Amino acid sequence: MDGKEEILELLRENARLSLEDISAMTKKSVEDVKKIIASLENEGIILKYAAIVNPEKDSASKNKVMAEIEIQCTPEREHGFDALAERIYRFPQVKSLYLMSGGYDLKVVIEGDNLMEVAQFVSSKLSTLNGVRSTKTSFLLKKYKENDVLYVEDELDRREGVMA
User: Fold this and answer.
1) What is the pLDDT of residues 71-100, one digit of tens each?
2) 99-112: buried (b, 16+ CB within 10 Å) or exposed (e) per residue?
3) Is the confidence at residue 158, as pLDDT, over 80?
4) Of 120, 123, 124, 126, whose CA–CA distance to 108 is shortest?
5) How far apart are CA 117 and CA 125, in angstroms?
């Protein structure tokens, strides 16, 4: 593993590591680590540092409604799905957007304050875009795991076993 990959892996696990910690873990100087991280940022490999928040425990997120929308669409000549995708990802409600293979073309994850807000977005903004043939909306009920992060606490069975 080269220096960039090693540092990226460490930052994927914990983006709050100090330069000194990364230096000690990689056996590189602090200055080398600083240069490698700057290079990763300048090359657009590292796009952002963010906190992962458990929505069940965060009052601001707890009452939000998330939905996954499958979109069948018609690709545009010379642009394919990219032009439509760009129109979609610019909406502030859109949290994720993916080009998919299979029964639909795009998968959109959106967030709203309530069910009606999400329904209104889908019916008035998303489904009316040129190129959108159909949408299918599913609402997220509970997150168990996302991006290797568990949102549920392991509950140990504290009952005593019965022996015969």
Assistant:
1) 999 999 999 999 999 999 999 999 999 999
2) eeeeebbbebebbb
3) no
4) 126
5) 11
Report angle CA 54, 58, 60 to the nearest 5 degrees.
130
**Whole-prediction pTM:** 0.78
DSSP state letters, 37-90: HHHHHHTTSS--------TTT-HHHHT-EEEEEEEEEPPBTTTBTHHHHHHHHT
Measured in whole angstroms, how far is the alpha carbon of residue 93 from the centre of its chain? 13
Name the percent of the chain lying above pLDDT 90: 75
Are the C-beta atoms of residues 122 and 69 closer than 8 Å to each other? yes
| Residue located via tokens 């909306």 | 137
What is the amino acid identity at position 59? Answer: S
